[in-house]
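User: Round two. Same drill as before: sequence, then structure, for each protein.

Assistant: Same drill it is. First protein:
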Amino acid sequence: MVRVSTTTPEWQTAESSDTQPVASPLEFPEEWTLSTSWERAQIEADQGGPITDAERVVWLSEGDPHRVVFVLDGATLRARCSCDGWHYRDWCAHVASCWWRWCTGAIAVTHQQTGREYRTPPEWLRFDHDRPDRDQLDGLTAAELDAFLTCELAHVGVREYARRTGRAPGTVGNLLRRAREKAHTPTPHAGGGEA
């Protein structure tokens, strides 16, 4: 339950029985860049803020506050809003505002399994059918998942990823190998084919 202070836009969360919010993968509607929701997201100021790593309050200047789930989960961005627009269309100004603010570096979005915060959408994020199924990634540890997403999906080299994370290249290579085995993805061969 969220309580709004009548004097300032401060938010407090009451105890909740569900520890992880349920949200569906974000899918952009056709011509979403021409929508009123997208226009509002870019024009109106957001007076809200984070509630948890996965949720935030979006309070656009010309509307009411709404609770929004906006979190990376596996290889997917998940979203949900408490407003009627989301309920009927799976798209609204509040979720659009989160996307806009994330793309411009105004908010950070947390990956639910790895805990890594992303200031902008990561290179590996896909919105088409080219992303792995959630089932493929469920058995991976946080470190394996992070290596898989970055090296396998974003095509970042093992050595480059090792430098970014302060790990040894051998450690990253082992994480990636185990992740590929668990996710049942073919290992690329040095010559460009599959091993």
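Second protein:
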Amino acid sequence: MITGVDLSESTWEAGSLYGCEITRTDFSGATLTGITIERCAITGSRFTGTRLTDVRLKDVLFDGCRFDYAILQRVTAAGSVAFTDCTLTNGAWSSCRLPRMALRSCDLSGLELESCHLDGADLRGSRLQGVKTPLDNLRAVTLGEDQLPDLTRLTVAALALTVRSD
């Protein structure tokens, strides 16, 4: 168990975290490369500006965490992965493979998705306003009815449609 530790600006390479609980820990500005996180619950922790590259997630829960301005590159999910009540604003995710992931009740404002596969992901309850992504990245995701206005704005922008009231 890791609680209340300051790991900001740290570098983690080619290791693994297994069966752990991490609570209120600061990973701000850290770099995590080539690591595996498996069977872990991470709660109330801060990943602001953190860079995750070639990270493998399996059976991981992130609850109430901050990932604002975080960069995820080639992050993959090999089991159940859930982000609940997390802030993921203004981050950038590229070439991530996160099928069937849950992003429930998260703030995704300003999140950029590039070449990500989120097939079957559950985005219900998450704020989608200002998400920047090609529509293909949202193929087969689950949304709530209340998210349809944000999806409509995203679609209008992606297709460069002109909407007129006259």
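The mean pLDDT is 95.

User: Perfect.
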